[in-house]
Amino acid sequence: MSAGGAPVPPPPNPAMSFPAPRVTLPAGPDILRTYSGAFVCLEIVFGGLVWILVASSNVPLPLLQGWVMFVSVTAFVCSLLFLGVFLSGMVTQINANWNFLDFAYHFTVFVFYFGAFLLEAATTSLHDLRCNRTVTAQPLLSDNHYNTNVAATIFAFVTTACYGCSLGLALRRWRP
Q1: Are the C-beta atoms of 43 and 162 separated by less than 8 Å?
Q2: pTM of this prediction?
Q3: Residues 155/50, Cβ–Cβ less than 8 Å
Q4: Is 116 left (phi over 0), alpha (psi -120 to 50) or beta?
Q5: Could you give phi then psi for residue 137, rounded to 5 degrees?
Q6: Mean pLDDT per 10-residue run, the chain (176 residues)?
Q7: Is 141 helix (H, G, I), strand (E, B) or coil?
Q8: Nearest-5° angle of CA 112, CA 117, CA 118?
Q9: Torsions phi, psi of 139, nearest 5?
Q10: What is the dihedral of CA 64, 69, 75, 81, to 10 degrees?
Q11: Residue 143 half-sphere exposure, CB side, CA atoms within 13 Å?
Q12: Where would I find the H helices in 23-97?
């Protein structure tokens, strides 16, 4: 009772005052049955191939290909975490606007991966550039490394396209 004689209402239950998480994608293994889940799996597979191919080319231009490696490894790990959160069902436990987070993540990675794709394509286009290594001028990339960089460029483009498709699907969910 308060000083005026009226009863004091109990404090609100904090668990009931927070809104439920906003997510339209299914949690658990059902995420793999959606287009978004399939694209995330493709992003992981093709992004891993970009990472492996660039690393196997001995990185002749570290300034350009270092950024490609950073973007591909970071996007690979973040996509694994993103898929893991949905597969484990944690999206239903964490109060967040998952539709917006999905859009923001895929927008950011799409922009960075597009830049990485352009840098990898630029590196590949410089294969005939002659470098003075000791006495004789040699091409920047050997034929084997050139072929590896061509494959990395193609997979970087495919990965960028997958992130673009995921971005479009995320935009549709976020802004219906």
Answers
A1: yes
A2: 0.81
A3: yes
A4: alpha
A5: -85, 125
A6: 69 58 80 93 96 85 85 96 93 87 95 95 77 59 82 96 96 82
A7: coil
A8: 100
A9: -65, 155
A10: -160
A11: 0
A12: 35-56, 62-88
